[in-house]
Specification:
Blueprint lengths: L2 H20 L1 H8 L3 H22 L6 H18 L5 H12 L4 H16 L6 H24 L3 H25 L1 H6 L16 H22 L4 H23 L2 H6 L6 H16 L4
Helix pairs in contact: 1-2, 1-3, 1-5, 2-11, 3-5, 3-6, 3-7, 4-5, 4-6, 6-7, 7-8, 8-10, 8-11, 10-11, 11-13
Length: about 280
């Protein structure tokens, strides 16, 4: 093994550590993917997680400087084919090997920068642009890995992959309503403009999310076997979260972050495996 190969191995292991520490649910879903694509999904998650942490968490630091430096270092990593930041090193490798369009990365970084200064998404256009950059493009990056070079399949599954990214993000917005509004002073849903969450607009939001899930499931069923079980596991987890949000009253959603317990996560994993083995997906 060459020195660069060893460094790349360490870089991908670093991305896996980030995934495992920041999201038990996502890391569980990644374990259900084929072993040959797990490292690449860890690399994508590590990149998007670090960018998100900069704008959402590092309140005692100059976030704008940090995100600009992060983007500059990514550009250098792509240009040079290496970065001493192991997260960026593994991500640039995945971008190149899977021929991921850099415009997807640009759209993602644009949405991250929105979070530095923009707090209210009062129009459908702004809301959809933010979701496209923060979630849909991440689904497309992962899809590039899943199809392993099959461009015809990529084109066929682009729309469902984006709908899945949208569904995941909207569920996160709804479950994180309290933290986003109180800690970060952000309101992503234009449905809430000037009103706050009510039973009526809660139903409207959930109907929108369910429509995204329905469209996404069509695409999940067409994924290669190497990816189908893992993506379906994540789908079932977020579907359960949505179901809990449906059953929670408005005041509970405003006051608490709705969660899925660890025993329930493993029950969902078992159900997902049964569905997959019985060819129900």
């Amino acid at each position: 093994m060459s020195e660069k190969s060893l460094f790349d191995k360490v870089s991908f292991e670093s991305s896996k550590i980030v995934t495992n520490n920041y999201s038990t649910s996502f890391s569980l879903a990644v374990k259900m993917l084929s072993s040959r694509i797990q490292d690449d999904i860890h690399a994508i998650y590590g990149f998007v997680r670090f960018a998100d942490e900069i704008v959402d968490t590092f309140h005692d630091y100059d976030k704008e400087t940090l995100i600009n430096e992060f983007e500059r270092d990514l550009n250098l990593a792509i240009e040079r084919g290496i970065s001493l930041n192991p997260i960026l090193n593994s991500f640039q490798d995945v971008l190149k090997r899977h021929n991921i369009d850099y415009e997807l990365v640009n759209a993602f970084m644009k949405s991250m920068k929105f979070d530095l200064n923009k707090s209210i998404y009062s129009t459908t256009k702004d809301y959809e642009e933010y979701i496209y950059g923060s979630a849909d493009v991440v689904g497309l990056m992962c899809l590039k890995v899943f199809v392993e070079g099959d461009e015809a399949m990529y084109e066929k599954l682009k729309a469902p992959a984006m709908r899945l990214g949208s569904a995941f993000q909207k569920v996160n917005f709804l479950r994180d309503l309290k933290a986003d509004s109180e800690e970060l002073n952000r309101v992503y849903f234009p449905h809430l403009e000037g009103l706050g969450l009510s039973e009526d607009n809660k139903v409207e939001i959930i109907t929108e999310i369910q429509s995204d899930f329905d469209a996404a499931l069509v695409g999940i069923k067409m994924l290669p076997d190497s990816a189908k079980f893992g993506v379906y596991t994540a789908f079932k987890y977020y579907s359960k979260l949505l179901n809990k949000l449906v059953k929670s009253d408005v005041e509970d959603i405003k006051a608490n972050r709705i969660r899925v317990s660890n025993p329930m996560k493993f029950a969902l994993l078992t159900k997902s495996y049964f569905d997959y083995k019985m060819r129900m997906i």
